[in-house]
Specification:
Elements lengths: L8 H8 L5 H12 L6 E7 L14 E7 L3 E10 L8 H10 L15 E7 L11 E4 L15 E7 L13 H11 L8 H4 L2 H10 L6 H55 L1 H45 L3 H8 L3 H10 L6 H12 L3
Parallel strand pairs: 3-4, 4-6
Antiparallel strand pairs: 1-2, 2-3, 5-6
Helix pairs in contact: 1-6, 2-4, 2-6, 7-8, 8-10
């Protein structure tokens, strides 16, 4: 047997966002959020915009849930496989929270609390060891929680989860192990079969259950992820190499100049020896720092051009316009690029930047 990777958008939504997923979702959410207790009694997969979960990549699975027989809330589930998508967390959470007002199924929409749940295939919080992190609104100085508790964020960072099969203790451990390792398993481990809903998740992830079109979509998404990761790595490497070279040249020039200046003050011979050495060292440090900054910007530009070329086949004029953007404008373009549907939207965005909007 072989299983599709739950870390791809299509596979994640097939397993957790299909009509067959309700029992899976109840087990999954209760295990992660409520330590296996059946706090969530029912879930309904909803879509405020009427969009297709499969068609629109990188949008969360939105759920209505009933807690303890009386409390209604909204859950957003999403898998993030690239660091660049991490910037969208608050955007999607705020969007799902506000769009409750436009739910056409309810005549008088009730604003329900929202928990936005994200699983990452990368380290998101460098200074934290635990794979699970929860965030709510807090008063900064006293750590006082915002009374209504309307909006929360929940993260599971898969690279930090290091437990092996025999070390799994809770149902939550088993679900996280499934997410991280399903694609490399050839059989369903006995340690996971004990949870019937995880067995159902494996059945939905079975490659043999896919149509030819679904299998092709999974492969396409895996290739897209690999391309984006390679583009990011290439941009960083090229930026570092260019920064180091510029740093060397600037360091040598500044070293010679510094050596001449200090040589006049302390003596020609000693000034040449000590001044040049100190100047070269300081010049290298300053040059590498400047080179790193320029390299990072060059890396951003490389990534953005590569991704936009893949989508729209940019002409030479558009590429030159993008190259002329400032560092801040490049950051805004990186956040906006995934929302462009046509190249005309990209051109309109660039025209606004030129007008200073």
């Amino acid at each position: 047997m072989s299983f599709i990777d739950p870390k791809t958008d299509f596979a994640f939504k097939r397993i957790f966002g299909s009509p067959k997923s309700k029992d899976i979702l109840l087990s999954f959410l209760n295990a992660l959020l409520y330590e296996g207790n059946s706090a969530i009694e029912s879930v309904e997969i909803v879509d405020f915009n009427g969009r297709s979960l499969v068609a629109e990549e990188n949008h969360p699975v939105t759920l209505k849930a009933l807690l303890n027989g009386e409390h209604k809330c909204i859950f957003d589930l999403q898998f993030l496989n690239l660091k660049t998508l991490g910037h969208r967390v608050l955007y999607h959470a705020a969007k799902s929270y506000s769009q409750q007002l436009f739910d056409k199924k309810e005549r008088t929409p009730e604003i329900k609390p929202l928990m936005s749940i994200h699983f990452t295939d990368f380290i998101m919080f460098e200074d934290r060891d635990s794979p699970i992190s929860r965030f709510t609104f807090k008063e900064i100085e006293t750590d006082f929680s915002y009374p209504n508790g309307e909006l929360g964020l929940f993260f599971v960072e898969l690279p930090k989860f290091q437990k092996e099969l025999l070390e799994l203790e809770t149902i939550g451990d088993r679900w996280i192990y499934f997410l991280k390792n399903a694609s490399i398993l050839e059989t369903i481990p006995e340690e996971l079969v004990v949870v019937s809903e995880i067995k159902q998740a494996f059945e939905l992830a079975d490659v043999d259950s896919l149509t030819r079109e679904e299998f092709a979509l999974v492969q396409q998404q895996l290739l897209a992820i690999a391309d984006r990761q390679n583009a990011i790595a290439l941009g960083k490497n090229e930026g570092i190499e260019e920064g180091v070279e510029q740093g060397r040249q600037q360091g040598i020039e500044e070293g010679i100049q510094r050596g001449k200046e200090e040589g006049i003050q302390e003596g020609i011979q000693r000034g040449k020896e000590e001044g040049i050495q100190e100047g070269i060292q300081q010049g290298r440090q300053q040059g590498v720092k400047q080179g790193r900054q320029e390299g990072i910007q060059f890396g951003k530009l490389t990534i953005i051009l590569r991704l936009l070329n893949r989508r729209f086949k940019l002409d030479a004029a558009t590429q030159e316009t993008i190259k002329s953007l400032s560092n801040e404008q490049l950051d805004r373009l990186a956040e906006s690029a995934w929302d462009f549907i046509t190249d005309s939207e990209l051109e309109e965005w660039l025209e606004k930047q030129a007008e200073g909007e």
